[in-house]
Amino acid sequence: MLDAATSHHLLGCSPETSVVMLGTATYPCLGPFSVWSPSMLADLIYVCICVCIYIYNIYIFFFFLTGHAGNACLEMVISMWKNLLQTMKERILQQRRMSVYNQAHGYEEELVKKQLQQFAGGSINLTKEDSGIGILTLNNPKIMNAFTGTMMLELQERVTELENWKDGKGLIIYGAGNTFCSGSDLNVVKAISNSQDGMNMCMFMQNTLTRLMRLPLITVALVQGKAIGGGAELITACDFRLMTPGSEIRFVHKLMGLVPGWGGGARLVRIVGSRAALKLLSGATRVDPERALHLGLSEETLSSSDEAGALEEARAWLSQYTEGPASVIRATKEMVAAGRELLLEAALRTEKDIFGTLWGGPANLQALATRPKHK
Ligand SMILES: CCC(=O)SCCNC(=O)CCNC(=O)[C@H](O)C(C)(C)COP(=O)(O)OP(=O)(O)OC[C@H]1O[C@@H](n2cnc3c(N)ncnc32)[C@H](O)[C@@H]1OP(=O)(O)O
């Protein structure tokens, strides 16, 4: 089980709910490491051995330097060792807890990654601006920013980077070359067209997009051109969607004899309701900006169609919600994410826990001292 502090910190919810919600596998025989999979433990042991060798070298160095290995040196080494183990444990737990699938679900991430690595091309780029807004670019314009295998891997890496960006407040996702994304690269789709490989790719993308959805950042998909198939699924993992004139969202899965598999079906139902979702999916309907606004799938239609102008507009739109201390913006998103995903009582407890992190904190005290009224 998770300890309360980490559970709240990582997901903004109480320990029992986060375990239930995320379906984390437990290995009771492993005691405090009970949520770790055997392969992760093997990785940890390997890293521990490397660190031991490294620390031993420092110890020997001090021994020769001072003629003896004094207590201070030994204490420093032990303290370094403890900090390192703690950091590693927190990082691994964080990634596992935010995901949906692990080995208990027959999901072997390392094998999936090896397979995806074979389909190279394009990139996923991230820039982190001083304002606390990150810009994530889907960059494969030759094929309408379709996701190759290595782009799927890079998306996971960028999400990890965003999870560790403690000053972040918001994120805009957009596609290079004036179009959003045409889903999975059809070459990948053809090459892995058997059920098991398809499910593996789904589990990988669902894990990544679920972690994206749970980031403590306010996220916006900027839809220019087309968001098709997996591209349409990706936009549902964001908190908001903005569309440019002439752009289009389309779940084309039915036309390919499929249903969404990157979590876009489940998320679409939560955004537009089951009736509208059923129409969009079973009709493979083209959703223009006007219809998206009407359905609540888009927040606003921007006036610019060109990349730089639309990005600037999206930045200005998002800034309305990211102004202020990062601690408060991040807590707000965490609270809403808990309300979106948890049952009411668990969400209420989470809200209380998050409230407790802010009440009497620096932003709260400063607001009381300088702005006690809001006229
Ligand atoms: C998770 C499940 C999935 O995502 S399955 C994949 C679902 N996506 C699709 O089926 C999209 C297939 N593509 C299309 O329908 C059209 O290309 C769309 C996106 C509508 C764009 O049409 P249009 O504006 O006329 O451009 P185009 O067809 O000339 O495309 C430009 C070049 O890009 C390529 N492209 C496009 N999408 C993909 C894709 N998903 N995978 C691989 N290549 C793709 C096109 O083939 C075309 O390349 P080329 O210029 O012919 O060499």
Automatic annotation (TrEMBL):
<dbReference type="GO" id="GO:0005829">
    <property type="term" value="C:cytosol"/>
</dbReference>
<keyword id="KW-0472">Membrane</keyword>
<dbReference type="InterPro" id="IPR029045">
    <property type="entry name" value="ClpP/crotonase-like_dom_sf"/>
</dbReference>
<dbReference type="InterPro" id="IPR001753">
    <property type="entry name" value="Enoyl-CoA_hydra/iso"/>
</dbReference>
<dbReference type="InterPro" id="IPR018376">
    <property type="entry name" value="Enoyl-CoA_hyd/isom_CS"/>
</dbReference>
<keyword id="KW-0812">Transmembrane</keyword>
<dbReference type="GO" id="GO:0006635">
    <property type="term" value="P:fatty acid beta-oxidation"/>
</dbReference>
<dbReference type="Pfam" id="PF00378">
    <property type="entry name" value="ECH_1"/>
</dbReference>
<comment type="function">
    <text>Decarboxylates ethylmalonyl-CoA, a potentially toxic metabolite, to form butyryl-CoA, suggesting it might be involved in metabolite proofreading. Acts preferentially on (S)-ethylmalonyl-CoA but also has some activity on the (R)-isomer. Also has methylmalonyl-CoA decarboxylase activity at lower level.</text>
</comment>
<keyword id="KW-1133">Transmembrane helix</keyword>
<feature type="transmembrane region" description="Helical">
    <location>
        <begin position="44"/>
        <end position="66"/>
    </location>
</feature>
<dbReference type="GO" id="GO:0004492">
    <property type="term" value="F:methyl/ethyl malonyl-CoA decarboxylase activity"/>
</dbReference>
<comment type="similarity">
    <text>Belongs to the enoyl-CoA hydratase/isomerase family.</text>
</comment>
<keyword id="KW-0963">Cytoplasm</keyword>
<keyword id="KW-0456">Lyase</keyword>
<protein>
    <recommendedName>
        <fullName>Ethylmalonyl-CoA decarboxylase</fullName>
        <ecNumber>4.1.1.94</ecNumber>
    </recommendedName>
</protein>
